[in-house]
Specification:
The chain is an alpha+beta fold. The protein has helices at 50-68, 108-118, 166-178, 189-197, 200-205, 237-248, 252-262, 290-314, 337-345, 361-364, 370-380, 392-400, 404-407, 414-417; strands at 5-11, 15-23, 29-38, 42-43, 46-47, 75-79, 85-94, 104-105, 127-139, 142-144, 151-152, 154-165, 183-188, 207-212, 217-223, 226-233, 274-278, 285-289, 324-328, 349-351. Strand 1 and strand 2 (15-23) form a beta hairpin. Helix 1 (50-68) packs across helix 3 (166-178), helix 6 packs across helix 7 and helix 8 (290-314) crosses helix 9 (337-345). The radius of gyration is 22 Å and the shape is globular. It starts with a strand and ends in a 7-residue tail after the last helix.
Length: 424
């Protein structure tokens, strides 16, 4: 019997990644196909040139299929960008008997109904609901993680709603439709990162996961074991590149090369290599120190980190981040970023990693591929062959959201658990 195959697609502002994986007999994800290419037609997570984005998607899908020697199945697709927003909501419903004097036992149907109730909110006309992640339930105003089987008169739930821009989501779906990619689900990028990178300890202690992308910096704030808040900041890796180009009077392409090959934002001084930087329009070159390059990068990175902390403080979540910061996204590969983040924020910081997969680690250990690995885990979650070991957030969301399918002996469709919507 062939091993189950799952797929993921991440259209980022700097690169587009396609992954194909099998779930082997041990329950592990085994990545068999990888396709990646510099992103074209995408800016700050938004498709601004449909034809260019389509060409890139077709290219990476073809590469992944050739490597895996199989056709890409229905895929989980990441979404991010400045159009993303969030809000918290709540829902409740009475469970009294006809006599009205006693409650009744909470069943699967009541849980589904109260979750639907929490989503009955007026959304802005240009926004659509992407995820509704349950945070906690209440039975007769007593907080609990799992209400099934409890007896009560009133059932309530608090839910974190993640919204996407309608037009931007539709443009993404249109691009995938033209590329003949069957879209299983669309997932907010840092949520996929959290699936791959966060441990039980992270969730229990409370962390801020920062997806340091090229177009935007996306953050999820976890406290008390649940997702409390999500946030998008308009500046990220591409802004660091632009700062380098502006200060050093060089091209964006050269600035990106400098950032990747020689840039470092760590606070320790480890030598001071001299770098030759070509000027724009071929007007000669200048010699700068690596320390100077680092200072240019530090200025923008410091601003981004300070805003992450400011947002946590605004939401009264800063004291709950005992586990510190988990850095993901392509920008997390900047040399010394974790050390510098600790010095700026006063919080512990580490680069996000995923250990529980089989595949070419020389490529996939880069934090820019965590989104793809998290998407694969989400796709595999409903398969009975898949082992959840190493992906604790899958179970946390099941417990917090709908333990219904697991109680029946199967995991069910994570798309329903995350309250996403299928491609219409």
């Amino acid at each position: 019997m062939p091993e189950p195959v799952v797929a993921a697609l991440d259209l980022g502002s700097s690169k587009v990644v396609a992954l194909i994986a099998q779930v082997d007999r041990s329950g592990m994800l085994c990545v068999t196909g990888i396709g990646f290419a510099p992103s074209r037609g995408v800016r700050q997570g938004l498709i601004v040139d449909l034809d260019a984005a389509l060409d890139t998607v077709l290219q990476v899908v073809r590469h992944a299929e050739n490597m895996a020697r199989t056709k890409m199945p229905s895929a989980a697709v990441a979404i991010s960008g400045s159009h993303m927003s969030c809000m918290n909501s709540s829902g409740n419903m009475p469970l009294t008997t006809q006599a009205g004097s006693r409650g009744r036992t909470v069943t699967e149907q009541e849980v589904e109904s109260v979750l639907a109730n929490s989503q009955s909110v007026q959304l802005p006309i240009d926004r659509t609901l992407l995820h509704a992640v349950p945070q906690r339930f209440t039975t007769d105003n007593v907080s609990c993680l799992d209400p099934l089987g409890r007896e009560c008169c009133r059932l309530g739930v608090e839910t974190h709603l993640i919204l996407a821009g309608v037009n931007h989501r539709n443009n993404l779906l249109r691009c995938l439709q033209l590329a003949e990619v069957n879209t299983r689900r669309i997932v907010f990028s840092p949520l996929a990162d959290a699936m791959a990178a966060l441990s039980d300890e992270d969730l229990d202690q409370g962390v801020a996961l920062i997806n340091f992308g090229a177009g935007t910096c996306d953050a999820l704030y976890f406290a008390d074991g649940v997702l409390q808040h999500s946030w998008v900041f308009r500046y990220a890796g591409s802004r660091v590149t632009r700062d380098i180009a502006t200060v050093l009077k060089t091209t964006l392409q050269e600035a990106e090369e400098l950032k990747i090959r020689h840039g470092r934002v760590n606070v320790r001084r480890e030598g001071d290599q001299k770098l030759t930087v070509p000027q724009v329009h071929g007007e000669g070159a200048q010699v700068i120190s690596q320390e100077m390059l680092g200072k240019v990068m530090q200025a923008r990175v410091r601003e981004i980190l300070q805003h992450v902390v400011k947002e946590a403080r605004r939401m009264n979540l800063l004291e709950g981040l005992r586990g510190g910061l988990v850095l993901t996204g392509g920008g997390a590969a900047m040399t010394g970023l974790a050390e510098y983040a600790e010095s700026v924020t006063g919080l512990r910081a580490r680069r996000g990693r995923c250990e529980h997969y089989i595949g070419p680690r020389g490529i996939l250990d880069n934090p820019g591929y965590l989104t793809g690995l998290g998407l694969l885990a989400l796709e595999a979650a409903a398969l009975p062959e898949f082992s959840h070991e190493g992906f604790p957030l899958l179970d946390r969301l099941l417990v917090q959201g709908s333990e219904l399918e697991r109680r029946k002996g199967r995991l069910g469709d994570m798309f329903n658990i995350l309250r996403g919507r299928r491609n219409p």
